[in-house]
């Protein structure tokens, strides 16, 4: 399987995955950029969009881990030439995601006010957050079913279909953001923050429709449910459960960061919203190579090709770090201009610029962590990923944030804590992979 770890094959999966991956945070970034430049109450609306965006990301990351589990199982069966064994698993996994999304919607939409009060939101920010979330939450079923199908595509070593769906969805979101937020005189009244929410909903619906088209036209699978539970369903749910716990810990860190930033004041949470969404954008960008590692790594494990598995880790590490350095250089070049894309409030921009360099500095470390994350998911190592994230969050991030807050570092405390968090994650993954696969025989 030498070709599996060639530059061409890795990038055949990674580049479409990068484009598909950045489409989701691009939707949130577009919302923030458009909302942040509305004349009335822009800081409050920007803060609300950032808080809700973080919460939505937290929920979606947690419950969408079945996407990764599906991808790992399919890629391993593809490598072992046993795809027929998972044909009944696919409709069962998609149905599970759909039903689970309804549970998430029912258990959060009614309690939106209480949820965002827990983020220390109050007054106009709380009201905006509640209104925005009530609409965005309708997209849970659309997003989670789409993600399940994207996991199937990735397991089949194809990320091009997901890229096409995501790009179209992002284009729909950008166009509707401007039409609905600002309105069209005499035709569409300006809807402000609610308009951004409806634009996001339309983008998610577009991606789902396209994903189903590729699913039926291009894959060997179907949606006919079998009364007999596929034997792999237990493995899928166990892997997903470990990843749920892992992602819950990950999003606890994000929640804590936003809660502290909100408590510091509206300008701080507005700046934090921009910083966090740029960090997420970078993360999804670099994550394209992690997706390649996930798909190819699972296939190599299924074929028991450990030599190429080691080569895969080295090559993808180099590519991911290079991407991180390029992103750092671009942002360094336009350091003082980037903040203006999202907000014109001088006090917000000063806070943003004072901390943005920390976000940039950590990108190579992020690249290594995300890349090995992807490979470990493809190998089915969900339990180790869970334990490492718990250690990084509760023994690294949380103490660092509390200590920094005690010394009055505010946004610096948040991002130094994130830096420590990523150092623990990347270090733990590299050490484990070297011990397990460096000298393993084929």
TrEMBL record:
Give the signal peptide range.
none
Q: How does it sit in the membrane?
A: Multi-pass membrane protein
Q: Which domain of life is it from?
A: Bacteria
Q: Does the keyword Ion transport apply?
A: yes
Q: Which residues cross the membrane?
A: 45-64, 85-112, 132-153, 165-184, 196-216, 236-257, 269-290, 319-342, 348-372, 384-403, 409-431
UniProt keywords (A-Z) are:
Antiport, Cell membrane, Ion transport, Membrane, Transmembrane, Transmembrane helix, Transport
Q: Which Pfam families match?
A: MatE (PF01554)
Name where it's found: Cell membrane
- NCBIfam families named among the record's database cross-references: matE (TIGR00797)
**Name under which the protein is recorded:** Multidrug-efflux transporter
- Organism, by scientific name, is Salegentibacter chungangensis
């Amino acid at each position: 399987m030498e070709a599996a770890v060639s530059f061409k094959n890795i990038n055949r999966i990674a580049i479409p995955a990068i484009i598909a991956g950045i489409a989701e945070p691009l939707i949130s970034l577009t919302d923030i950029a458009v909302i942040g430049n509305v004349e009335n109450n822009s800081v409050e609306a920007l803060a609300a969009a950032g808080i809700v965006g973080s919460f939505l990301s937290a929920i979606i990351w947690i419950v969408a881990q079945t996407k990764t589990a599906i991808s790992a199982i399919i890629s391993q069966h593809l490598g072992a030439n046993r795809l027929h064994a998972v044909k009944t698993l696919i409709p069962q996994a998609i149905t599970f995601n759909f039903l689970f999304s309804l549970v998430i919607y029912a258990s959060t939409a009614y309690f939106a006010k209480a949820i965002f009060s827990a983020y220390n939101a109050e007054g106009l920010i709380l009201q905006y957050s509640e209104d925005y979330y009530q609409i965005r939450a309708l997209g849970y079923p659309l997003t989670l079913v789409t993600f399940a199908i994207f996991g199937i595509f990735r397991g089949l070593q194809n990320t091009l279909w997901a890229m096409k769906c995501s790009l179209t969805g992002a284009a729909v979101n950008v166009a509707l953001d401007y039409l609905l937020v600002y309105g069209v005189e005499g035709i569409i009244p300006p809807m402000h923050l609610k308009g951004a929410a409806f634009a996001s909903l339309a983008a998610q619906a577009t991606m789902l429709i396209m994903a189903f088209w590729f699913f039926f036209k291009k894959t060997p699978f179907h949606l006919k449910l079998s009364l007999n539970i596929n034997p792999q369903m237990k493995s899928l749910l166990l892997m997903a459960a470990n990843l749920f716990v892992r992602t819950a810990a990950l999003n606890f860190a994000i929640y804590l960061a936003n809660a502290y930033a909100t408590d510091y004041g509206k300008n701080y949470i507005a700046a934090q919203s921009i910083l966090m969404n740029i960090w997420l954008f970078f993360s999804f960008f670099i994550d394209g190579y992690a997706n390649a590692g996930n798909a190819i790594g699972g296939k190599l494990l299924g074929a028991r090709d450990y030599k190429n598995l080691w080569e895969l880790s080295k090559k993808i590490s180099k590519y991911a770090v290079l991407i991180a350095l390029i992103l750092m250089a671009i942002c360094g070049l336009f350091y003082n201009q980037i903040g203006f894309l999202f907000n014109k409030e001088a006090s917000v921009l000063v806070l943003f610029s004072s901390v943005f360099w920390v976000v940039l500095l950590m990108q190579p470390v992020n690249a290594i962590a995300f890349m090995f994350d992807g490979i470990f998911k493809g190998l089915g190592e969900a339990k180790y990923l869970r334990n490492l994230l718990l250690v990084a969050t509760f023994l690294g991030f949380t103490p660092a944030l509390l200590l920094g807050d005690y010394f009055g570092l505010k946004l610096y405390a948040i991002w130094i804590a994130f830096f420590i968090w990523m150092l623990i994650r990347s270090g733990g993954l590299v050490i484990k992979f070297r011990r397990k696969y460096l000298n393993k025989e084929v």
